[in-house]
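Problem 12. The chain below contains 77 residues. Write out its predicted structure in token notation.
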Amino acid sequence: MANTIERPLDLLNQSRGKEVLLQLKGEKQIVGTLLAFDIHINIVLSNAREIENGEPKRNIGLVFIRGDTIVYISPAS
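Solution.
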């Protein structure tokens, strides 16, 4: 895969429809399929799951996460 990432939002665009891992403030981790985002990095995930110690803790489903609560975003694979 050619590296076509020039700006941070380019990575999010390439991750649409794929699983991402979100590290949130307060040590929470969420994994889900990235549906949408905006310039404030507000994120909408489907099939979201809360992760604790590397293991699924609970299913959340469809969720909106405010960008100011996100520490980092990573491809889940």
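Discussion. The chain has one domain: 8-75. Students who got a different answer should revisit the alignment rule from Section 12.3.
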